[in-house]
Amino acid sequence: MEQYVIKGGNPLVGEVEIGGAKNAALAIISAAVMTDETVTIENLPNVRDINVLLNAISDIGAKVDRLDAHTVKMNGSFIHNLVVDNEYIRKIRASYYLLGALLGKYKHAEVALPGGCDIGSRPFDLHLKGFRALGATVDIRHGLVVADAKQLKGTHIYLDKVSVGATINIMMAAAMAEGKTTLENAAKEPHVVDAANFLNSMGANIRGAGTDVIRIVGVEKLHKTEYSIIPDQIEAGTFMLAAAATKGDVTVKNVIPKHLEAISAKLLEIGCEVEEFDDAVRVVSSKPLHHTQVTTLPYPGFPTDMQPQIAVVLGISEGTSTVTESIFENRFKYVGELARMGANFKVESNIAIIGGIENYTGARVNAPDLRAGAALVIAGLAAEGITVVDDIYYIERGYEEFEKKLASLGAVIEKVSTEKEIQKFTLKVS
Ligand SMILES: CC(=O)N[C@H]1[C@@H](OP(=O)(O)OP(=O)(O)OC[C@H]2O[C@@H](n3ccc(=O)[nH]c3=O)[C@H](O)[C@@H]2O)O[C@H](CO)[C@@H](O)[C@@H]1O
Ligand SMILES: C=C(OP(=O)(O)O)C(=O)O
């Protein structure tokens, strides 16, 4: 088990390069198997979830050549097995995309029920509703979702709830269905648009991604493409909030500022300066921060994947703030851990009421999930003294070289794996 050890109190200063979006890449590498021609994908983040999914894709026979850490060449013509199941794939959420991709292409798929961060009950019904509406039979058997169809037929589908996963999954299956599908109440997240653009670059006919209504005209075949994944909105937002928490001055580079507007707006509200460039955003935190209200919402609202990070910043901002989590019912598990660092949070149902304190004090804490883990690291960077974050396995699901990027901005942070190394770090920095 590895940990991050952090000596807090250093303002983060400098420039940091943001990688490709994990949640776009997971959809895109799944969709890549829908053609029998070779697909090249660039700006792939080199993180655990991507590697688990690429291994699963390779296990079913597709050719997966990693040209370098951020580029992969894939060929789906060698697929000989439509059953996707192993102990790693069961732990990630995005395995569900192989259902849409394989069902669309082969009209059959058997994929382990999805896992992912433990942030709520995370039902899967809308995906299944969509596949069934397209004409597939779908059953859960022995831990696998088994989807089968003689032919998929385009139809009209209304999603009862805005769901990123269901939108992309149904879009993939419908891309190779017969006729026209209209998907209403679709998710509008940047990764939905990126997945649609990728499919279109392979010859799909998808219009309206990024709006509430997506129209898909099925095609018989998809073809080769070369595609570069959009920058990661959530990685960028995490560094922006780390700058705010540490009274820093950070320019996050290789981003699409439009995707960061909800985060920038909150930073401005609490007293940071935010400067936008063509493909960069600079956050300067030089004044005392103050309270605000945040509610997580589907895009273009404030992202749920940034909720723990902004809550940590509000925890050391003057006054009383509230953070309302409207997407996942169990995304405040980090609050108990943050209390060890002195935080004054009270959670009532889906609302955290946050009494701002002057600063956190370093403590030993556990990362309960990916974004909460990143948020605890931010707390450690701001805190007085030393923080140890256990279970960083979760953080590595979605952040590439997190500690190295933070250290390049002046953070005192190391990845360690033994108690001896923790003691060594403590001696070195005290
Ligand atoms: C791999 C990936 O991209 N994960 C992201 C994806 O997760 P994921 O695709 O699981 O999230 P969804 O957008 O589907 O979930 C949104 C809401 O819809 C509900 N719901 C979803 C599907 C369904 O069939 N039935 C249903 O009721 C969920 O419980 C949740 O309340 O979008 C979330 C919301 O932006 C992000 O936090 C995750 O990081
Ligand atoms: C919750 C997340 O991922 P997943 O849906 O894969 O669990 C996330 O990226 O913050």
UniProtKB/TrEMBL annotation:
Q: Give the UniProt subcellular location, in the record's own words.
A: Cytoplasm
User: Per the record, GO CC terms?
Assistant: cytoplasm
Query: Its annotated pathway?
Result: Cell wall biogenesis; peptidoglycan biosynthesis
According to the UniProt record, list the residues that bear 2-(S-cysteinyl)pyruvic acid O-phosphothioketal: 117
Superkingdom in the source lineage: Bacteria
For this protein, the record's InterPro entries field holds: Enolpyruvate_Tfrase_dom, Enolpyruvate_Tfrase_sf, MurA_subfamily, RNA3'P_cycl/enolpyr_Trfase_a/b, UDP_GlcNAc_COvinyl_MurA
| Gene3D superfamilies in the record | Enolpyruvate transferase domain
Q: Which CDD domains match?
A: UdpNAET
User: At which positions is UDP-N-acetyl-alpha-D-glucosamine bound?
Assistant: 93, 161-164, 305, 327
Write down the EC number: 2.5.1.7
Per UniProt, phosphoenolpyruvate binds at: 22-23
**UniProt-recorded Gene Ontology molecular function terms:** UDP-N-acetylglucosamine 1-carboxyvinyltransferase activity
Q: Where is the active site?
A: 117
Is tRNA processing among this UniProt entry's keywords? no
Give the principal location in a single coarse category: cytoplasm
Any single biological process term in GO: cell division
The enzyme class is: transferase
Q: Which family does the record claim for this protein?
A: Belongs to the EPSP synthase family. MurA subfamily.
Please describe what this protein does.
Answer: Cell wall formation. Adds enolpyruvyl to UDP-N-acetylglucosamine.
Q: HAMAP family, from UniProt?
A: MurA
What protein name is recorded for this chain? UDP-N-acetylglucosamine 1-carboxyvinyltransferase
According to its UniProt entry, this protein's organism is Roseburia intestinalis L1-82
